[in-house]
């Protein structure tokens, strides 16, 4: 018996030792929970970082399985870059506990939660499960306000300079060029946004809060009665009345959101549904952060021009 | 001169804050006494300077106001805002699982022939019954450790509610300073073995556990012990680990040394493309067994377990020969049980051959349980919440060396099987399809392969089909149908309607 135990231990550590002996790579490994943060990390980190995104543009980051491959990725990460505000609370804690190194744990330079660095919308006053799957820290979909992206770019660069001081100069240079391009894009977008001011929209989930706030759009109804809980027939009926009564112009949908409710409402009201990219990769043309906002605005302008 | 001095005083009183903030230090004044004209000149200069500064400040404020209108209002709260700190801010996360069912069975007999099973893996009481309720508390202890306590409340009709300590463990956190990827867990826990063992039953896809879990582990192995595991620094997910345990929970029993069992495991996992994932594993759990008997799980020596077993035998006696009811009712000592078994044996020993010995006898020796498992998931859009297919299977085989003894020596029913070497495999395969965000269907087949030594007419098998409705990740209602063929002949057709709800803190789901 005792010999078996020792043999098992020896075997386990033998395999472990062989794996640990593999040579270390000099690049900073970034584990991004969502594609928007992966895109930002690539823009700011450039060749100094290797970025892996836990989710893709067609996925809802609320509900991701803590897959074995993600444990392996987190295990090797030097930087963890996520939205925070409980967006990833269904799966990230499992990865963190199981695989993550000390360097990416909360409070460490390698731990970046976007929601910790920008003003937060929709922070609930009361918290109860009967209110649905709410985020006690507020709305986590912060990347859809481009000003937040600029803030996070600076924060990321600061962290990368700290973690990888040898390349600090390069990170600062890349940040400067990113910020210059972003400021230019912001000027361009603010002209386009001015023409969309006051556009009335119906949403599915409150994923668009930051975008609507920045672009000055008005949300008149939400297809989801409670966050995370599919709409009931009674609720859809009331949304139908609201949409008609307020003269909603468009129904917004993210690529991962269910189609049935928005199609139902569109069929009954004639209000067009537009599927916005939501994140990088959510639309074939939304290949980076700049094109994410370009495509989003173009799609909305098309709706405006049609009506 | 006087009016000028008063003017100065008034000025000082009118602008105290500005003077305090912006006035040059008093020591900076000229050393010689200034004349009145000079003073007036200086005051006028100061006045002009303040006006200019105030103008600049006003301009600054108006631009800030303009920016503030543009920015998100601060009143909505920012994460930097202080949170009210109270004592319960550090309370552990508490979660409760509530579970109830209504079930109907076509057969009275439900023991797995040839395989003694424990209390936990028996089918639920017929009719309306409360299933297993659970209270779990967990929290980070400090920067290095995490703790968890899970209490199970088992209700069996006609008996006092049983409180079972399902888990009570501590676990190291990444800040504990262990080598990267290493974790140590100690206490009582649902240890790493196969796919289902680590998981609480309320997370299962079916209302009951498949046959290999019921026969070999009494649903789950949660002995007292410790486990070390290591996630390796590889591109592919790989993990290895080993454990040492007391050896008092099925498949072990009666640990004499308090360190009678050990385990080792290895797992690999990864993705197929963007929307599917897989994991495979190999496991071994071995140890000593002293007098492991039928119907014994945790709490072998406890009165609760015995009372229940005595009750069962009482039923046997009643049906088969109406034997001495009073004596059984009075107390449930080991002798009584053997007596009941003897009577049972008298009638069936010949036709069942060795099966009786395996079912009812006491086993002592060494046992080693090997297992391999796999799980693959595929979500067509990457969103498991909308649509997903999962396929899962496990194959266990148990090797045992030792002695089976039926009734003590000297008893006329004494039966003994010595120096045997028995390998008993069992497996299951299941598929679950989520075809709607709230609905899933699933099917499962499980089988135990009886070795020839058991002389069973047929292998115990069970087929299950289920349909469940999930309102949110906290509530689920399930309808399940089972056809179990566990006895020598006939089937037990079972139908179950179950609810599983969790409130409070809800542990995140693993793969």
Topology:
The complex is a heterodimer of chains A (307) and B (511).
Chain A: H1 2-20, E1 28-32, H2 35-45, E2 49-53, H3 68-76, E3 79-82, H4 92-98, E4 111-113, H5 146-163, H6 168-196, E5 200-203, H7 209-215, E6 218-222, H8 233-246, E7 250-253, H9 260-269, E8 273-275, H10 289-306
Chain B: H1 2-14, H2 16-22, H3 36-70, E1 93-105, E2 127-130, E3 133-140, E4 145-154, E5 162-172, E6 182-188, H4 211-217, E7 224-231, E8 237-245, E9 261-272, E10 276-292, H5 303-320, H6 325-330, H7 334-352, H8 355-360, E11 362-378, E12 388-406, E13 415-436, E14 439-448, E15 461-472, E16 475-485, E17 492-504
Antiparallel strand pairs in B: 1-2, 1-3, 1-17, 3-4, 4-5, 5-6, 6-7, 7-8, 8-9, 9-10, 10-11, 11-12, 12-13, 13-14, 14-15, 15-16, 16-17
What does this entry show, briefly?
The complex is a heterodimer of chains A (307) and B (511). With 307 residues, chain A is an alpha/beta fold. Chain A is built from 10 helices and 8 strands.
Keywords:
heterodimer; A: 307 residues; alpha/beta; Rossmann fold; 2 domains; 8 strands; 11% strand; globular; B: 511 residues; alpha+beta; Porin; 16-stranded antiparallel β-barrel; 17 strands; elongated
Structure in words:
The complex is a heterodimer of chains A (307) and B (511). With 307 residues, chain A is α/β, with parallel strands linked by helices. Chain A has 2 domains: 26-181, Nitrogenase molybdenum iron protein domain (Rossmann fold); 193-306, Rossmann fold (3-Layer(aba) Sandwich), CATH 3.40.50.1980. In chain A, 46% of the residues lie in helices and 11% in strands. Chain A is built from 10 helices and 8 strands. Chain A has helices at residues 2-20, 35-45, 68-76, 92-98, 146-163, 168-196, 209-215, 233-246, 260-269, 289-306, and strands at residues 28-32, 49-53, 79-82, 111-113, 200-203, 218-222, 250-253, 273-275. In chain A, the strands form 2 sheets. Chain A has a 4-stranded parallel sheet with strand order 2-1-3-4, with helices on both faces. A 4-stranded parallel sheet of chain A has the order 6-5-7-8, sandwiched between helices. Residues 17-25 of chain A have low confidence and may be disordered. Chain B has 511 residues and is α+β, with helices and mostly antiparallel strands. In chain B, strand 9 and strand 10 (276-292) form a beta hairpin. Chain B starts with a helix and ends in a 7-residue tail after the last strand. The interface between A and B is large, with 66 and 67 residues.
């Amino acid at each position: 018996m005792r010999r078996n135990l020792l043999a098992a231990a020896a075997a386990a550590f033998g395999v472990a030792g062989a794996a640990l002996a593999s040579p270390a790579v000099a690049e900073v490994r970034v584990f991004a929970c969502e594609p928007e943060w992966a895109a930002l990390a690539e823009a700011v980190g450039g060749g100094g970082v290797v970025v892996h995104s836990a989710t893709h543009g067609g996925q809802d980051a609320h509900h991701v399985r803590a897959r074995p491959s993600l444990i392996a990725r987190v295990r090797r990460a030097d930087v963890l870059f996520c939205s925070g505000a409980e967006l990833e609370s269904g799966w990230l804690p499992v990865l963190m506990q199981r695989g993550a190194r000390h360097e990416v744990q909360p409070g460490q330079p390698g731990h970046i939660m976007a929601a910790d660095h920008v003003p937060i919308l929709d922070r609930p006053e009361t918290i109860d499960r009967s209110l649905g799957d709410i985020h006690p820290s507020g709305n986590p979909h912060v990347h859809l306000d481009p000003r937040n992206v600029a803030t996070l770019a600076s924060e990321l660069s600061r962290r990368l300079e700290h973690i990888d001081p040898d390349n600090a100069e390069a990170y600062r240079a890349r940040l400067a060029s990113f910020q210059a391009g972003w400021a230019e894009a912001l000027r361009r977008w603010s002209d386009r946004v001015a023409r969309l001011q006051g556009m009335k929209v119906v949403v599915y989930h409150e994923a668009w809060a930051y975008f609507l706030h920045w672009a000055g759009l008005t949300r008149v109804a939400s297809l989801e009665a409670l966050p995370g809980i599919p709409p009931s027939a009674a609720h859809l009926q009331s949304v139908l009345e609201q949409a008609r009564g307020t003269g909603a112009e468009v129904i917004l949908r993210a690529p991962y959101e269910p189609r049935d409710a928005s199609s139902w409402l569109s069929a009954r009201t004639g209000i067009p549904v537009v599927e916005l990219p939501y994140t990088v990769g959510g639309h074939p043309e939304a290949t980076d952060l700049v094109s994410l906002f370009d495509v989003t605005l173009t799609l909305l302008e098309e709706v405006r021009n049609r009506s | 001169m006087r009016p000028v001095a008063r003017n100065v005083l008034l000025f000082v009183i009118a602008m105290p804050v500005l003077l305090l903030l912006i006035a040059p230090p008093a020591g900076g004044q000229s050393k010689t006494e200034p004349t009145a004209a000079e003073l007036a000149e200086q005051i006028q200069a100061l006045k002009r300077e303040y006006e200019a500064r105030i103008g600049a400040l006003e301009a600054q404020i108006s631009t800030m106001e303009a920016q503030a209108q543009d920015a998100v209002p601060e009143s909505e709260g920012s994460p930097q805002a202080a949170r009210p700190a109270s004592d319960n801010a550090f309370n552990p996360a508490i979660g409760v699982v509530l579970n109830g069912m209504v079930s109907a069975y076509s057969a009275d007999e439900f023991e797995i022939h040839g395989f003694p099973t424990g209390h936990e893996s028996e089918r639920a009481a017929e009719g309306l019954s409360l299933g297993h309720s659970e209270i779990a508390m967990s929290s980070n202890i400090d920067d290095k450790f995490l703790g968890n306590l899970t209490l199970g409340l088992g209700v069996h009709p006609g008996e006092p509610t049983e409180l079972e300590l399902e888990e009570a463990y501590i676990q190291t956190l990444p800040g504990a300073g262990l080598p990267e990827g290493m974790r140590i867990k100690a206490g009582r826990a649902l240890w790493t073995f196969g796919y289902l063992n680590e998981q609480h039953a309320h997370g299962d896809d079916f209302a009951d556990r498949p046959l290999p879990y019921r026969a070999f582990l009494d649903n789950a192995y949660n002995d007292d012990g410790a486990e070390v595991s290591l996630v390796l620094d590889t591109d592919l997910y790989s993990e290895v680990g080993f454990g040492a345990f007391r050896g008092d929970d099925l498949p072990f029993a009666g640990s004499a040394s308090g360190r009678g069992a050990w385990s080792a495991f290895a797992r690999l996992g990864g993705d197929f493309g963007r929307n599917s994932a897989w994991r495979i594993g190999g496991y071994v759990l071995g140890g000593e067994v002293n007098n492991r008997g039928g119907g014994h799980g945790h709490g072998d020596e406890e009165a609760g377990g015995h009372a229940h077993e005595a009750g069962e035998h009482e039923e046997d006696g009643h049906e088969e020969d109406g034997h001495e009811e009073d004596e059984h009712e009075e107390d449930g000592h080991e002798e009584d049980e053997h007596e009941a078994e003897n009577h049972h044996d008298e009638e069936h020993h010949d036709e069942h051959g060795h099966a009786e010995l395996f079912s009812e006898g006491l086993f002592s020796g060494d046992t080693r349980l090997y297992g391999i498992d796999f799980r693959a998931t595929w979500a067509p859009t990457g969103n498991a919440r909308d649509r997903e297919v999962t396929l899962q299977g496990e194959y266990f085989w148990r090797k045992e060396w030792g002695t089976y003894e039926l009734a003590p020596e000297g008893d006329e029913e004494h039966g003994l099987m010595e120096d045997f070497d028995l390998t008993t495999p069992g497996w299951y395969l299941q598929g679950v399809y989520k075809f709607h965000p709230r609905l899933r269907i699933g099917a499962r087949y499980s089988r135990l392969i009886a070795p020839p030594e058991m002389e069973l007419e047929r292998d115990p098998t069970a087929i299950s089909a289920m349909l469940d409705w999930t309102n949110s990740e906290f509530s689920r209602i399930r309808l399940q149908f089972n056809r179990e063929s566990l006895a020598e002949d006939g089937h037990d057709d079972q139908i179950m309607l179950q609810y599983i709800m969790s409130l409070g803190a809800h542990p995140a789901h693993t793969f």
